[in-house]
Structure formats: structure tokens, C-alpha cells
Amino acid sequence: MCRQPSFYISLTNRNDLFTSNKLKIINDPVYGIITIPNPLVFDVIEHPWFQRLRRIKQLGLTNYTYPSAQHTRFQHALGSMHLMMQAIAVLRSKGIEITEQEAEGLTIAILLHDIGHGPYSHSLEQTLVRDLPHEELSELFIAALNRFFNGSLDTAQAIFNNNYPKLFLHQLVSSQLDMDRLDYLARDSFFTGVAEGVIGYDRIIKMLTVHEDELVVEGKGIYSIEKFLISRRLMYWQVYLHKTVIAADQLLVNVLKRAKYLAEGGIDMFATPVLKRFLFSNPSKTDFESNPLWLEYFAQLDDFDIFSAIKAWCSHSDQILSNLSANLVNRKLFRVEMQSEPFDPVYVEAIRQQTMRQYGLNETDIHYYFTCERVENKAYNPLHDRIMIKWKSNELTDISRASEQLNKATMPTTVSKYLLYYPKDINH
Q1: Comparing C-alpha atoms, which of 48, 47, 56 is closest to residue 74?
Q2: How confident is the model at residue 418 (pLDDT cuts 50, 70, 90)?
Q3: Which of 21, 87, 196, 375 could disulfide-link to 234, CB 3.0 to 4.6 Å?
Q4: For the chain, what is the mean pLDDT?
């Protein structure tokens, strides 16, 4: 008989979260002082599901390339909340009505926007759970937390799901110019030390306004938006899609895929109880929707479950699992070749065959050591949640047409690069 999750009792008794003083302040290296605005927000932050974000790195294994990139989803969520509170104050100062209930809903919606992330954030997206991206998991978590808080999160849930009458409120949470993006660019730039990602988040927020229920930017803020979009594109190639970062992420994914393959074959291996549940049960979106316990099990998973297992797998009897695990622990990453044009198929096949021979792999197992794929970077999409510039004449113009700098940089264009991964000791 499976034991209930260790935090299950607290989920059924909200009084466990209450303390006498909830109006706390937090020291943040990016913004300085962050204030918790009210007791409900404090209770949400104190909830075990939110506290789990302390144990999930914001940038997965990016610290293998940028050693100081050790910040967490918890820090990012608090930073996003701080920027949201600034945005609310700015919009109110311009005569835009945001009630206290709506302000609280906005604050909680942005606070919980990433609560559905699993271990190592995007690195293991859909590796442990099939067909269920973190956005949909966040929806499930917010709905469950709303039940726990007796409907106090109704407004936050409606805003997050884009079901609230004031549509611009959702844009503050999720759009091409939301508080999530403003914080992660500022925070990721700070912790990686990549100066190209530095943005004027405070200037951008001060330039926000609302026109006919749409979040827009005042004309005098156009240069700040140009810098924001250019910084985002540069951060993708320099950090998020850096070839060494991708190599580390790919190795991590391959380790978990091999572990799941062995588990499906009935081969035992060390894992924490909750990780073992996901390895051997292989839950899908349907399982989460039909059995609420899966959400609670997922809420126990964090980076520590994954890496402690990988350390143990270094000595597993399966040679592929042990080799991949040892390589990840000791940072012996794949070689990555990156170019703008597709690779010559003859060249790709030659490396693939050499990898098979040198590692004694068959057609079934070669994918653990050899991958050829394409990645894309589109810093701005004018067909989706456009960033509109509002001029003094009240005319609105899409940023991609209003800005000469962005036209020159072809910001709306998708840039693709082709990647080839294989072990560094392959001679070709």
C-alpha cells in the first residue's frame, strides 16, 4: 500500500500555514527589496508546492557553461511578482482601473505561472510526463490550490487561464511583453554574467498603458522595447541555445530516457520513491486528469531526486546508463557542431557509423549518443500577442513596423541552426 505524500496532511489543513506576521520583505540581488503585499500571497508562497521551486534550477544545466547560473524558479517567481506589483502601480497612476481583487489576482497568477515546471525546468520537459507541458501542469496546480484556499484564487485562476473580462490583465501574465519575460531576461543576465541580456525593465514598465483593453507601450518607450527584443534574441544564442548548454541538456535527457527504457523492461535501479514511481509507471496527461494523486506526486519531484539517482547510476550494470550518467556527473559532454545550413547527409552518416562501431551500439541504441536536430530562435512574432506602440495621436503600430532597428535586424524572422551531437572521442 502506497503511503500518502508527506505533505498531504498540510494540504487538507490550511491552518498549518498561518503565522502571526505575514508582511515580509525579501532581499533580492536584482531588484533590492521585494515586499510580500498581503497575507494570502504569503500563504501561497509558504505552501509546500510553491516551496518546491526552491529546489528547481531556473536554467537547468546552464551552470555547466555559466557557473554562476544557480538561481531557481523560486527566485524568478518572486522577481516576476515584484515587477507585477510595479506594473499595477504604474497603470493605476495613469487612471487605469485595477481593483484590489484584480491586483491580488494578478500578483498570485504571476507568482504561480511556473509552478508546473518539473526538475531542471525546460531540460526535462515531457521526459517524465508524456504530453503534458508545464503550462498545463501549472493550470492543474492553480486549480488545486484554489480548492485548497477555498476559492480565494478564483480571480488569479481566471486571469491565468485568460477567462477574465479584462483581457489586458492576462497579457501582464502571459504575452510577448509580460512580467515573466522581463524578469527572466534581467535575472538570467545577472546570474550568467551575460551583459547582452541587460534590459531596462523599469523603463519598460513605466511606459506601459492600456488602449481598448489591450496592453500597449507609449511611443516614447520604443527604444526600450527595441533593446528588450534584441537582448532576448542575443540571450537565446548566447545562453538558452548555447551549444554547450544544449549538449548538457541533451545528455541529461538521454540519461532519463535510458532509465525509463530499463524501467519499462523491469530492470531495477536506484531512485528516490517518487522518481521510481514516474520511471516505472510512465504517467500521461490522462493519468493526471483522472487521478489527482499524480499532481501531488509530481509536486514531490525536484532536481535533487534526479541528480542523486544519476550519481548512483554511474555504477549501474547497464553500460549505456552507467556511461551516460558518469559523463554527466563529470561534465564529459557531447561534442556539438552548429551551423546555419543542414549538414551533409554523407557526413552525418559517417559520424553515426563511427559512433556505432566505437561504442558497440546497434540501431536501437545509437540515439543515446548521436543526435542531429534543428533549433529555432524567434525573438518576436507579429502574428501572436503583438507588442503595439501607442503614439500621441492614439494610433497603434506593431513594433516590427514602428522600429527601423528591428526591421534591419529582421526580428520577426525565425532563425534556424542545425546541431550535431556525438561523443568527443569519435575520430572522423
Answers
A1: 56
A2: very high
A3: 196
A4: 91
Q: Are 336 and 246 in contact (CB under 8 A)?
A: yes
| Cβ pair 270, 313 in contact under 8 A | yes
Instruction: Give, for 421, the enclosing helix (H) or strand (E).
Output: strand 415-422
Q: At what angle do helices 100-111 and 39-46 cross, to 10 degrees?
A: 20
* Residue 154 and residue 146 in contact, taking contact as beta carbons nearer than 8 Å: yes
- Give the span between the Cα atoms of 6 and 9, in whole angstroms: 7
User: Checking DSSP bridges between strand 371-377 and strand 415-422, what pairing results, if any?
Assistant: antiparallel
What does DSSP say about strands 371-377 and 335-339: parallel, antiparallel, or unpaired? Answer: unpaired
pLDDT in tens, 53-69: 999 999 999 999 999 99
**Nearest partner of 130 among 289, 285, 290, judged by Cα:** 285
- Alpha-carbon gap, residue 324 to 361, rounded angstroms: 13
Q: What angle do CA 145, 146, 151 make, to 5 degrees?
A: 155
Quick one: how far is CA 370 from the chain centroid? 26
Query: If you average pLDDT over residues 388-397, what whole number do you get?
Result: 94
Whether 82 and 94 have beta carbons less than 8 Å apart is answered as no
Tell me the C-alpha distance between 107 and 105, whole Å: 5
Looking up cell 521510481 gives: 276
3-state helix, strand, coil in the chain (%, to 5): 55, 10, 35
pLDDT single digits (tens) 220-266: 999 999 999 999 989 999 999 999 999 999 999 999 999 999 999 99
User: Is 210 strand, coil or helix?
Assistant: strand
CA angle 348/352/355 to nearest 5° reads 140
DSSP state of 54: G
